[in-house]
Design brief:
The chain starts with 7 loop residues before the first helix and ends in a 6-residue tail after the last strand. The longest helix is centred in the middle third of the chain and has 21 residues, at 147-167. The protein is built from nine helices and 14 strands. It has 317 residues and is α/β, with parallel strands linked by helices.
Length: 317
Amino acid sequence: RTGQPVRREAVKLLDAPTVGVNYAWSEHGYAQDFGGVAGWGVKGIAAHTRARTAELAEMRAFGARLVRWWVFPELWGEAVRFDGKGTPVGLGGTVEEDLHAALAAADEADVSLMLCLFSFDGFRPTRLVGGGNKIVSTGLTEIVADPYKRAALLDTVVRPFARWARASPFAARLGAWDIINEPEWAMSGPSPGGPSYRPREDVVPVPHATMESFATEVAAALRTESSAPVTLGSAGTPFARAWTHVGLDFHAPHVYDWADRALPYETPAADLYGETPALIGELPLGGLRRGSFQVVTERLLDVGYRGVLGWAWNERG
């Protein structure tokens, strides 16, 4: 809703230029920090709190105030439980303990977290993943496209997770929710006021209307259960018009060279997002072809973005 009044929490988060970084996952690997993967003997954050705290503290020492951390980029192992028909029935593994450990580590390191719930990667088909000891990766496409399964995901996964975060002694360290990372790569057909979607070859895409409904319902669920502001990690500023009806507290587009070629990164934020605040959710730490990370960041702040998060801590070299 372009120009809608934003919640006080969003204004507070972005009341000063916010420089941060994408974690995006720890050394244990992608899609394993929240819940672990018992089938591979991998434990989540709670089993490695000291190491995670040390990494967050190092990020803070480099100037990061906000750290974007991925939660369920794909539905692996026991983190999300399903019935025999593939309907979500609850959270499992060590998800609750890992969430509390992440917030506690953030508090000790003096950073805030932007927890990114899902990703386009989750729209890969249901399959077995891993080496000799394979585990099930459940695809999101059927869940998102089926109103009953989508409601079950909200009621048994999104809402309980948000309630656990709210109940944490360190709930204040939850700076924001990010609904989904770059959903455009799991979408097909035209986009509102932007280029047509070009889904990745390894996903099962959905049309804009389906993804918009999903994002809108997740946003509403999060806002019911949590006071933290809600955003969405759009793949790029050329899709600026795609998410104006979701009810976001602020926008968080990503900027890479492809997006800069399609729409120069110097385009004022207000021209794209109106009065709704915006920060850049991903910018390569190595910069763009037209400038270093520092040069591009300074220019983005000059044209009205409230902050920039580098991609990514584990790729910093």
